[in-house]
Write a structure and sequence with these properties.
mainly alpha; single chain; about 240 residues
Length: about 240
């Protein structure tokens, strides 16, 4: 019963967040995101450096990987929530606050792990897509875009690159809470489609792909678990 309450609460919050994104015109949202990305370009540069340092250290030090990767996901969500609070972007405050709570709970309960030997080819493919395009997000940067995106794309600052990076790390996770997987998958698909069709951010195809993969993986896992329950094999 308690788990059902948590699922309904998370689902209800997502519905509220999604509804809030439709209360402003796409043009107003684009202007606001461009201003935020420009104002915090130097902070984005710091987050890029932190990304590379954490990724390298996590790959070289498997024993510290959960603390490094999990801590970085917490930093990303807290950073984006703080930026949203400063600019008073209410949907993002709620969204990244939810992310932060789920990540913190997953770390506290030991529900997050990155044993890369237990991942399959699809996990690694979508994880790589998420990490590459989260880091090298080809939108909200000045020309030359290809170069500036490597340094100043708004990672940990605005929605899509931050969510895409979190999704990339979760795609590579050998263990992750189902609630966090669901929230990440759902928001990536929603904001990816929003970005493609309303904001002209075509790089968000990567966001939709990673989010859809997370949702598909969650559905497959849930089906397998149901099949293992008493009487489940007959129903499957």
């Amino acid at each position: 019963m308690r788990d059902k309450v948590k699922w309904w609460a998370a689902g209800g919050m997502l519905v509220i967040i999604f509804a809030m994104t439709l209360m402003r015109s796409p043009q107003a949202i684009s202007r606001m995101l461009a201003v935020v990305a420009s104002d915090l370009a130097m902070f984005s540069l710091f987050m890029h450096a932190a990304f590379l340092a954490v990724l390298a250290a996590g790959l070289l030090l498997p024993g510290a990987r959960v603390r490094l990767f999990g801590g970085f996901l917490g930093l990303l969500s807290a950073s984006a929530a703080g930026v949203a609070l400063y600019y008073f972007v209410l949907p993002n405050i709620l969204l990244f606050g939810l992310y932060f709570a789920l990540i913190l709970n997953g770390l506290r309960r030991g529900g997050l792990g990155w044993d890369l030997g237990k991942t399959n080819a699809a996990d690694r493919l979508f994880g790589l897509i998420g990490l590459i395009f989260g880091f090298w997000y080809l939108h909200w940067v000045q020309s030359p875009i290809m170069l500036n995106a490597l340094l100043f794309s708004p990672l940990g600052v605005v929605n899509c690159p931050t969510m895409l990076t979190i999704s990339g790390f979760l795609c590579l996770a050998s263990q992750r809470p189902s609630g966090l997987e669901l929230v990440s998958g759902a928001v990536c698909v929603y904001f990816g489609l929003f970005g493609i069709f309303l904001l002209g951010a075509y790089v968000d195809v990567a966001l939709v792909a990673c989010g859809a993969y997370q949702l598909a993986r969650l559905a497959i896992t849930a089906r397998r678990c149901a099949a293992l329950e008493p009487g489940g094999l007959g129903k499957a």
